[in-house]
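Before anything else, study the sequence and fold tokens given here and see whether the fold suits the sequence. Record follows:
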Amino acid sequence: MPSLSRRAFLETTVLAGAGTLFCGRLLAAEGGLRFGLAADAQYADAPARGARHYRESLGKLRAAVEAFNQEELDFVIHLGDLIDGGLKSFADILPIYRKLKAPGYFALGNHDFAVAESEKATVHKTMGMEARYYDFTVKGWRFAVLDGNEIGYIATAKDSPERAQAEKMLAAMKAKKLRNAMSWNGALSATQLAWLDKVLADADAKGQPAIVFCHFPVFPANAHNLWNDVEVIAMLERHRSVVAYINGHNHAGNYGAKAGIHYLTVNGMVDTADTNAYGVATQLAAAGVGVVGSGRLKPRKLVRG
């Protein structure tokens, strides 16, 4: 089957506005990368508050999983805030996610740590994760999954060095009146930054296109961004392998491009009573993917500049 042309891609993504996820299927026969995206299901057995309809997230995630299972995907990743809070919420929503036919990954969100103090250290294990940040390789592509809660308020113990560092960092940011000086954001530690630098350097050396996942955005400038967003962006720009940075956290969704790197915020699934938000990314070229969205997630073409 011939490769999907730019015109065909655009025509297909227009049709995808109705919720159809078939753009990438045209390329799947050629062995290209395909993966599913979702963010901020933020389930809780609680009444709706504002735009957030917590109980509806079970049905929304179930619909997304059913759609993903109709596709031939290499993996699916949920980009943080699987729950709104309370460890018992995981017992309701994790069985739905585990019905995926493809491997299912997680990035950790701030709400995932809205549990009892004694439970915070084991949240990632409850979700079936071996580590809070990690990397993996699929079909010659490198993926790094970050933990933006490492330095912050919600995921750290009150008497920990990480909490002390968070308090100092946030106070300095508030003094500068930075828009992302919010207690519900967080930062990567120096150790995690060094790890990411090493992973991306390895991808550079091996000629692997790379995509970085995190719950928190770093670009464009926004109130939801990681506290050390500028530092993370600078690191990404030092590595020729990086194609895109994909995240959740900002339920409205967002997009920007800088120095040839794409920054995509996936809309929050929990928002609205009757619309969903998820998508499928399909390899378009050696260093690019096309994202076909369902519901509120808009189609995007992410090709390294």
